[in-house]
Specification:
single chain, alpha/beta, Rossmann fold, 4 domains, six-stranded mixed beta sheet, 17 helices, 22 strands, elongated, binds nicotinamide-adenine-dinucleotide, binds (2R)-2-hydroxypentanedioic acid
């Protein structure tokens, strides 16, 4: 196997380069390449992995060219610089490092708050300019003041903890914050309106979504206490910058500290130059410790995925641990092959897919297995599909996908049954993995079989009448088609029967036509796995 190749296109810590090298991955470190989108588009096709921070924009246009790319790793939290739907459609896993820079970013928010309270940057500039303006800078204490935290996840809760240590009262608005968690953190869970009305300082720690965009706008600011100070170290766009600028000018807002802006890099902004505004160029995560953390983490995660299939912190696929990956692997293969078996036999639109997991397999990562079934099922019809893109495509096509999980009801320790409902019929197929790790077909349409998936197979449905097997075998023999394995099964004597044959090499069309012409044969199909 040739070593996977990874491009680092942003300024990641060198620690990442070393990890990739140590894991046997070819790594190309071009820390400024992310800013040159044409160059990135030109070379992205050469890589299996792309490691980025925020300067690289992995747009649909660039991903179009990423024909080898399997994983994008964001050394950080926000993945708003990656077009996730485009990556998913191309089957590219997108992963981030959700905790590596949380403390550092929380510390930046606290630093911003204290700097605002005492106007440190302006006082510094004035002092160093030789002015000694002792009367100009009158700060406020933060002790006993109320801090309103909007978004109390990883970073918001660290900010809350530090603020409590500074003897502030902390109130938090976060629809996903449970009362128990709020109690554990020592914060008061409140509504957004309460934050606006009660807070002396407001700090934002949510992602930018349709719901959070301009969560602080002119109307919100109007409800706030006069003299409120606002800190945004989360994402540009959470605060309406024009509305805030007006409120700073009027004095209703006493200060604002921003690390993130609606447009970045922010070389000009309506907030620049206003009284008591502190700005930093998206430095929230910029400490040696955080950058080392996220670089190490992203490199390990990407290496794990490229080398073992283990998935951690993926935005668009369920996680699979390094322990789970080897156990899951044969079942992923089984799931994909069951899907492929049904997909190759399906000629009309699929309306519903039911996947039943029985026994030990029911305890595994069902979401990953279902994705594998769907990718096997859809690939014969839709081509370039993989486990990442298949669930999205199935949904787009209006397919209902049901997963059923139950204890073992058959002789098998693990059994996966796939039932595909089309506009015309329902077809089901079951499989298991034996101790040898090889996936087996054990049931087709209620007929028991015991067949491995050969790379080239012929599947025949026929009436169980004498003479068929001999004629079928002779047709193959006459055409010099060598039979590797031969599996037969039937419902009842004289009823529906099937033959599943593995052959050496592809099935010649003229042989398939002759088999189809046999009087007992209902359907014949060449299958490849
Ligand atoms: N400035 C930087 O350099 C920097 C560094 C790291 C992270 N960030 C950003 O900080 C933000 C927070 O990161 P995190 O790791 O704490 O994320 P997180 O997912 O742990 O927390 C986000 C919280 O926001 C809450 N939330 C979602 N919608 C909300 C809404 N409408 N109202 C209130 N709360 C809502 C969620 O429930 C969650 O608890 C992200 O936007 C991230 O990109 C910035
Ligand atoms: O990489 C950076 O410097 C910014 C990171 C930050 O915005 C994040 O979302 O993790």
């Amino acid at each position: 196997m040739t070593a996977p190749k990874v491009l680092i296109s942003d300024a990641l810590s060198e620690a990442a380069v070393q990890i990739f090298k140590d894991r046997g991955i070819d790594v190309d470190f071009q820390p400024n390449l992310g800013k040159d989108k044409d160059k990135l588009a030109e070379i992205i096709g050469n890589y299996d992995g792309l490691a980025i921070r925020s300067a690289t924009k992995a747009t649909a246009k660039i991903l179009e060219k990423a024909n080898r790319l399997k994983v994008i790793g964001r050394a950080g939290i926000g993945v708003d610089n990656v077009e996730i739907p485009a990556a998913t459609a191309k089957g590219i896993i997108v992963m981030n490092t959700p905790f590596g820079n949380s403390i550092t970013t929380a510390e930046h928010a606290i630093t911003m708050m204290l700097s605002l309270a005492r106007e440190i940057p302006a006082a510094d500039a004035s002092t160093q300019a030789g002015k000694w303006e002792k009367n100009r800078f009158m700060g406020v204490e933060i002790t006993a003041k109320t801090l309103g935290v909007i978004g109390c996840g990883n970073i918001g809760s660290i900010v809350a903890d530090r603020a409590l240590g500074l003897k502030m009262k902390v109130i938090a608005f976060d629809p996903f914050l449970s009362p128990e968690r709020a109690k554990d953190l020592g914060v008061e869970k409140v509504e957004l309106e309460d934050i606006f009305k009660r807070a002396d300082f407001i700090t934002l720690h949510t992602p930018l979504t349709d719901k959070t965009k301009n969560i602080i706008d002119a109307a919100a600011i109007a409800k706030m206490k006069k003299g409120v100070r606002i800190i945004n170290c989360a994402r540009g766009g959470l605060v309406d910058e024009n509305a805030l600028a007006e409120a700073l000018k009027s004095g209703h807002v006493a200060g604002a500290a921003f690390d993130v802006f609606s447009e970045e890099p922010a070389t000009k902004n309506v907030l620049f130059g206003l009284p008591n505004v502190i700005c930093t160029p998206h430095l929230g995560a910029s400490t040696t410790e955080a950058q080392e953390n996220v670089a190490l983490q992203v490199a390990e995660q990407m290496s794990d995925y490229l080398l073992t299939g283990a998935i951690t912190n993926a935005i668009n696929f369920p996680s699979i641990t390094a322990e789970e990956a080897p156990k899951l692997k044969p079942f992923i293969e089984l799931a994909e092959k069951l899907g492929s078996f049904a997909g190759q036999l399906t000629e009309t639109g699929i309306t519903k897919v039911t996947i039943t997991y029985e026994g030990e397999v029911a305890e595994m990562k069902i979401k990953a297995l279902t994705s594998a079934v769907l990718s096997g099922l859809l690939r014969p019809m839709l081509g370039d599909i993989n486990v990442v893109s298949a669930p999205v495509i199935a949904k787009e096509r209006g397919m209902v996908v049901d997963e059923v999980v139950r204890a073992a009801e058959s002789d098998y320790e693990s059994l996966i049954t796939l039932t595909v409902t089309t506009e015309k019929q329902e077809r089901s197929v079951s499989g298991t993995v034996y101790a040898d790790g090889k996936p087996r077909l054990v049931d087709i349409k209620g007929i028991r079989v015991d067949a491995e998936f050969g790379s080239s197979m012929i599947y025949v449905t026929n009436e169980d009448k004498p003479g068929f097997i001999g004629k079928f075998a002779s047709l193959l023999g006459d055409a010099k088609v060598n039979i590797a394995t031969f599996n037969l099964g039937r419902h009842t004597e004289g009823g529906d029967a099937i033959a599943l044959v593995t052959i050496d090499g592809p099935a010649p069309t003229e042989v398939l036509e002759k088999v189809q012409a046999l009087p007992q044969v209902k359907q014949v199909k060449a299958l490849t796995f």
